[in-house]
Amino acid sequence: MSMSFERYMLDMVQPMRDDLTRIGIQELRTPEEVETSLPDAKGTTLVVVNSVCGCAAGQCRPGVAEALQHDITPDHLFTVFAGQDKEATAKAREYFAPYPPSSPSIALMKDGELVHFIERHQIENRSAAEIAEDLTNAFDRYCR
After folding, report:
1. Active site residue: 53, 68, 109, 131, which one?
2. Phi/psi at 63 (5° precision)
3. CA distance 3 to 105
4. Record's family (predicted)?
5. How many CB atoms neighbour CB 50 within 10 A?
6. Which tens digit of pLDDT belongs to each residue from 7-23?
7. Are the CB atoms for 108 and 75 separated by under 8 Å?
8. Which of 55, 63, 121, 130 has the fewest CB atoms within 10 Å, i.e. the most exposed one?
9. What are phi and psi of 115, to 5 degrees?
10. What does pTM read for this prediction?
């Protein structure tokens, strides 16, 4: 009995998806879901570009989880998964200009406009606590 590569990958990344969905972040898995969720979102929106890399597991996802314990948080919480939901990720990245594609990464938007962005290079060499602090500072500034 053999398992398809696609099934294997879906099973393999599910715990990585669960790290974010279990804390209330909604997955956007298609370009249509991105298009209906991001441009017209009123208030503030956090978008996490998830990935299978070590810095996503060790710093990004734990940093986001810690930041969401803050008293002030965004109105909307979304995630796309780079390398898995490729079309949805590409559509979300259209809203992150002028930043080049980066995964993992974290975007904070206000009324559909990008106001804060954390690129991979700002994740991989920082601790989860430092990422959480960066995010909570942005929440304090933009989510009031």
Report:
1. 53
2. -65, -40
3. 31
4. Belongs to the bacilliredoxin family.
5. 30
6. 888 889 999 999 999 99
7. no
8. 121
9. -120, -20
10. 0.94
Active-site position among 20, 28, 46, 55: 55
The structure tokens listed for 115 are 């106001």
55 is catalytic: yes
**Is 53 an active-site residue?**
yes
Q: Where residue 133 falls among pLDDT bands split at 50, 70, 90? A: very high
Q: Is the peptide bond before 100 cis (omega within 30 degrees of 0)?
A: no
Gyration radius (Cα) of the chain, Å:
15
> Is 93 in contact with 47 (CB distance < 8 Å)?
no
Alpha-helix residue ranges (DSSP H) falling in the chain: 5-21, 31-37, 54-55, 61-67, 86-93, 128-142
Residues 136 and 71: beta-carbon distance below 8 Å: no
Q: What is the pLDDT of residues 45-104, one digit of tens each?
A: 999 999 999 999 999 999 999 999 999 999 999 999 999 999 999 999 999 999 999 999
Structure confidence at residue 34 (pLDDT): 98
